[in-house]
Design a protein that fits this description.
- The chain is an alpha/beta fold and 270 residues long.
- The chain is 50% helix and 17% strand.
- The strands form two sheets. A five-stranded parallel sheet has the order 5-6-7-4-8, with helices on both faces. Strands 1-2-3 form a three-stranded antiparallel sheet, with no helix packed on it.
- Strand 1 and strand 2 (30-39) form a beta hairpin.
- Helix 6 packs antiparallel against helix 7 (180-189).
- The relative contact order is 0.12.
- It binds adenosine-5'-diphosphate, magnesium ion (MG) and zinc ion.
- The site of magnesium ion has 3 residues, from helix 5.
Amino acid sequence: MGKDFISTSEIVGESKHFYNYQTLVCEEHGEFMSATFTLKGESRATSCPVCVSHKRDYDYIKQRKEQEQENQLAAIKAVINRAAIPPSFEHCTFDNYVIYAGETQARVVNNLRSFAENFAQVKTKNIHGILTGSTGTGKTHLAAAIINELINRGYTAVFATMSDIVNTIQSTFANKAQSKQSVIKRFIDIDLLIIDEGAVTNRDFDRNEIFDIINTRYNLKHPTLLITNIIDDLKTKLGDRVISRMQQGKFVQVFNWDDYRLKISNHSGV
Ligand SMILES: Nc1ncnc2c1ncn2[C@@H]1O[C@H](COP(=O)(O)OP(=O)(O)O)[C@@H](O)[C@H]1O
Ligand SMILES: [Mg+2]
Ligand SMILES: [Zn+2]
């Protein structure tokens, strides 16, 4: 035999690979030429090249998106000095939220869960909302659960009190590295902003800055959720107009049950 002929047994002997071509059919892209070979005694076939290249593109885009989300969250962290959720609420999920007040409570939890799970639709429908009810009913807990869920789904979401936002904006006055506008823009850019009224009083802040953030987010279809003990207090702070617009969206979740902590101590039998 001449030197230019290499037998298959020689290939197998030298490289432990045996190549053979066959036509396979991809359900999506039709026929393609597949190389089959044995590697370590296992028979393999190369996949549809179109699928492979789509997957490569998909992985690339996914990686880019994750990187972008990470950068945005890091930027927000630098701005508000903590992660998207206050440390004491990091553990909060929908699953560890206890339903102890029947149907009404179950419905609110369900509404908020589906807000998080269908966030793409929430955005296109430009849904904004209000969580209202007395202290200890779990408003912040469920807000944190929403944030956790959205971050897992690749969105940027942040929980901030009004004081967080006001202090952050005011801190730019003494800081040449960060302009007021760039900080405001951070609050506008994130996919979901949850603003808790917190303990801020009427005179503590310039309502226009928070108003502008909410308003600009509304125009850009970036949803915002407001948390308050009493809706009328929020109206005094932010003005009727923005609050009635939030109410018109009909995503007003009323937490009208007892404080979780009282519930727990009652049941402990002490
Ligand atoms: N239904 C619930 N199941 C489990 N934990 C709860 C529930 N409601 C409230 N909590 C917990 O009780 C504490 C107070 O709740 P929080 O979310 O701060 O109430 P709110 O914001 O309405 O004042 C938090 O530690 C929270 O995790
Ligand atoms: Mg709270
Ligand atoms: Zn294919």
